């Protein structure tokens, strides 16, 4: 609220309310996840906001049974989302990607034909097209029925999902499907008056959907991640692809978003269970303060399996999704070290020597200890930001300072407004101290006369993050 007194004519007391003193920093998201992967259905190359695993299945379909001999083409998005939500994720932006090389992915199409005078199928009236490409729509069954005394009826059935539309003519059914179906769309955009009066006979499928495009490369990952650049994402995961295949695209995405002021952390999985394989292949793919590499893989139940033992051995990327979901539940200053994860089992139980070797290669290791836990919450960086929590604290501070300073852009650049800006940032940083994210800080907001003229204010900030306990030394005196 701001009241400005433009003219003072009558005697009295006049009050001017300046809004700068009311500016604060609102809530900052810290656990939103962005993920890309392949799926049996759902919109291609579009970010879909999800709040539960049930929503994920509705949007992208249930995953097929796991094929251990062809892990590269297993559809990964829904299975990855299962691990994300199992880990505790609550807000996920998911992008379905696909390899559309070769002849490309086809979308299933049905041609609805008119009922001729002799009761047989006549010419095409309009078409139904599945809402997304892939083989999922090949299981869609379409029924049509019409008699001289009953209205025409059109039914679409996919598993337990059924849509039914009734009408006197083809035009009525066209209109109903156009606005009411979640499974198909109609073409053409408008139906000719002559076609609207016709009665439908049958709906044969003229184009089969597929393939699903499960074998993706870094190019498709890069395109999918590009759709997440402007979303409020804090953690990034890639479904099904190990770090060796996805690291280049992910590192480019992390650098782009950091330069744009949308900082985030990526959690990737190692593709090999053997320690040497992890170190030589995936660790060599690259690293940085915003990249986390997880090993080993995990054992999980396969909801699509028909075997007596439904457990399957999933590689590192799915363990990374479980860790990413768990990370999303923690405040920025809370370390992943020794946090439990909801894994049924691990594909490899590393020895202490192997764990040490992996930690020295900057790999986040899962191990068994009163359940299954993160051995040490570290990034692949070997410099100042080893701990994931330190990087998240710094990112949280940057977001808060950016959010607190933004409303001052365009206001007067004078000592009074700069003091108000400093008070806003002081309030935010003091809250970080109270929350034990940082131990202390220094803050200065200044501008020279030249900077005042140019519209520049300089915020100088130093932070001392709070570090987690990695080791506890116990001394026992025996007497």
What does this structure look like?
- The chain has 479 residues and is α+β, with helices and mostly antiparallel strands.
- It has 2 domains: 33-101 and 214-386, 3-Layer(aba) Sandwich (Rossmann fold); 109-207, Immunoglobulin-like (Sandwich), CATH 2.60.40.
- The chain has 12 helices and 21 strands.
- Helix 1 runs antiparallel to helix 2.
- The longest helix has 20 residues, at 415-434.
- It is flat and about 95 Å long.
Concise description?
With 479 residues, the protein is α+β, with helices and mostly antiparallel strands.
Task: Give the topology, please.
Elements: E1 33-37, E2 47-50, H1 53-60, H2 77-87, E3 92-96, E4 109-115, E5 121-130, E6 141-145, E7 152-158, E8 161-167, H3 170-180, E9 184-187, H4 193-196, E10 200-202, E11 205-207, H5 218-226, E12 235-238, H6 243-259, E13 265-269, H7 275-282, E14 291-295, E15 298-301, E16 311-314, H8 316-328, E17 345-346, H9 352-360, E18 364-368, E19 372-374, H10 388-405, H11 415-434, E20 438-446, H12 449-454, E21 458-465
Parallel strand pairs: 1-3, 1-12, 12-13, 13-14, 14-18
Antiparallel strand pairs: 2-3, 4-5, 4-10, 4-11, 5-9, 6-7, 7-8, 15-16, 15-17, 18-19, 20-21
Helix pairs in contact: 1-2, 2-8, 5-6, 10-11
């Amino acid at each position: 609220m701001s009241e400005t007194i433009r003219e003072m004519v009558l005697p009295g007391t006049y009050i001017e309310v300046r809004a700068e003193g009311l500016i604060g920093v609102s809530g900052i998201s810290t656990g939103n996840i962005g993920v890309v992967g392949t799926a049996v259905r759902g919109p291609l190359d579009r970010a879909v906001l999800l709040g539960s695993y049930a929503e994920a299945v509705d949007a992208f379909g249930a995953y097929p049974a796991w094929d251990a001999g062809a892990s590269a083409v297993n559809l990964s998005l829904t299975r990855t989302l299962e691990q994300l939500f199992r880990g505790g994720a609550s807000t996920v932006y998911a992008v379905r990607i696909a390899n559309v090389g070769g002849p490309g992915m086809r979308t299933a199409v049905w041609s609805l034909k008119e009922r001729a005078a002799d009761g047989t199928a006549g010419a095409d009236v309009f078409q139904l097209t599945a809402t997304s490409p892939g083989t999922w729509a090949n299981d869609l069954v379409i029924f049509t029925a019409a008699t001289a005394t009953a209205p025409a009826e059109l039914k679409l059935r996919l598993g337990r999902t059924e849509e039914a539309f009734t009408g006197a003519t083809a035009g009525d059914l066209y209109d109903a499907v156009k606005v009411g179906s979640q499974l198909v769309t109609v073409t053409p955009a408008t139906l000719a008056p002559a076609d609207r009066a016709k009665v439908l006979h049958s709906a044969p499928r003229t184009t089969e959907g597929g393939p699903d495009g499960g074998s993706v490369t870094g190019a498709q990952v890069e395109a999918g991640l590009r759709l997440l650049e402007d979303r409020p994402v804090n953690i990034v995961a890639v479904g099904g692809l190990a770090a060796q295949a996805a690291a280049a695209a992910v590192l480019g995405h992390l650098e782009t978003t950091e330069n744009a002021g949308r900082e985030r952390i990526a959690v990737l999985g190692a593709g090999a269970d053997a320690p040497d394989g992890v170190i030589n292949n995936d660790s060599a793919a690259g690293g940085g303060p915003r990249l986390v590499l997880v090993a080993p893989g995990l054992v999980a139940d396969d909801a699509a399996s028909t075997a007596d033992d439904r457990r399957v051995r999933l590689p590192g990327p799915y363990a990374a999704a479980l860790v990413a979901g768990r990370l999303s539940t923690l405040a920025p200053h809370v370390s992943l070290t020794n946090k439990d994860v909801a894994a049924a089992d691990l594909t490899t139980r590393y020895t202490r020597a192997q764990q040490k070797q992996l930690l020295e290669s900057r790999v986040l290791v899962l191990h068994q200890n009163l359940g299954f836990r993160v051995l040490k919450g570290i990034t692949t960086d070997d410099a100042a930001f080893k701990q994931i929590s330190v990087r998240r604290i710094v990112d949280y501070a940057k977001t808060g300072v950016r959010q607190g300073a933004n409303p001052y852009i365009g206001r007067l650049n004078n000592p009074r407004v700069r003091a108000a800006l400093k008070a806003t940032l002081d309030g935010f940083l003091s809250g970080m101290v109270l929350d034990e994210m940082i131990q202390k800080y220094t803050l200065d907001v200044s501008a020279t006369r030249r900077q005042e003229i140019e519209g520049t204010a300089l915020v100088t900030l130093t932070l001392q993050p709070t570090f987690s306990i990695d080791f506890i030394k116990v001394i026992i005196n025996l007497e």
